Predict the structure.
Amino acid sequence: MPGSRSSGGACILHADLDSFYASVEQRDAPHLRGKPVLVGGGVVLAASYEAKAHGVRTPMNIRQARELCPNAIVVGPRMDAYSEASKRVFEVFEDTTPLVEGLSIDEAFLDVGGLGRIAGSPHTIATTLRTRVLAEVGLPITVGVARTKFLAKVASGVAKPDGLLVVDPHKELDFLRPLPVGKLWGVGTKTEEKLNSVGLQTVGEIADLPLDTLVGLVGVAAGRKLHSLAHNQDPRPVETRKRRSSIGSQRALGRRKKTWSELDAILRDIVDRVTHRMRQADRVGRTVVVRFRFDDFSRATRSHTLPMATADTERILHAADTLLSDMRPTIKQSGITMIGLSVTNLSDARAVQLALPFADGTALDTALDGVRDKFGSASIGRATNVGRDTGTSVPMLPD
Ligand SMILES: [Mg+2]
């Protein structure tokens, strides 16, 4: 189907790096190329396609993986290298279209509708994207192109590794029906096994079952979802949001010298605003960046990366406070005229909250946001800000 001419309306790309961690290892260590590589410690976090060919899957016990693939080379994970690679790949995504919705460290949806006259058809754009990611970051990436996010995601799964597949909008059911049911987004191994055990293999066979029968087999929730997906109805709204690379705010401080407690209060206010906006956008972030401008117009930037992504006001404030404290000697010497804060390394809060439901104070912050949204931001001031002029803040452009 690549090269399909009648792809009008198919303008959602699902771009997904192949065996991401393992590919980064193979890129950085030539002797690993073409070899079965496992990344992990006790559990396989990623396996190269050479290892997958032996039946290795993730997550799988390393011991079990070695039994399947005795020649496998095991390497420990290097998360910093993966974050760096991810950042560079997302720069290519964002250079391709402003409409990028990151799903995880190694995959995103891109809406390329409306770019036709500038950049060519979605097929052309996807081809260029793959070429650029390989040339500029050194990694193979697979792209599925379709009318909906659901189909684009299924298409990239089918096209892997190092592939490109466009689903013609007029042939969506022809594409879906012959696929093994496990290719449907969100169908786990257990559901797949259950269906296979009663002789149901393909999406088409699932589509032809009455809903009641399906519900009897896998339960109400899973049954309804499967029924919709098999009929090419994606219950999730298709809304490609702009994926911001950072959320931030900054404050001009004027020439008058500020006391340390005034600076602390201003920083707290900025953090409040930024984290409020992050929670509104369902984003969490790991890297806290504080920017300073001094009386002599010189500038400084300091950043700290947290162990876990968060939108929690206190956690981000703590990191920002430490960065501010480190700058005290310079501020004392040169005076400060501007302070800015941004949180980068953003990801989708819903995914993180699923994994860590009670990990931080986000629930409290969300409750405060509710009051603020209802009664205006002046209704809630942190104790330190009572009676202070909090000044004006300008939104910081993503950099
Ligand atoms: Mg991937």
Q: What stands out?
A: The chain has a mean pLDDT of 83. Residues 16-17, 20, 106-107 surround magnesium ion (CB under 6 Å).
